[in-house]
Amino acid sequence: MIYVQLFWEFVQVGVFCVGGGYASMPLIQARVIEAHHWLNMSEFVDIFTISQMTPGPIGINAATFVGMKVAGIGGAIAATFGFVVPSLIIGIILAKLFFKYGDIGPVKGILNGLRPAVVALICVAGLSFILLALWNTETMPSDFMAIDWSGVLILGLSLVAIQRKMGVIRVLLASGVLGLCIGLLHTL
Question: What number of other Cβ atoms are within 10 A of residue 103's Cβ?
Answer without folding.
Answer: 9
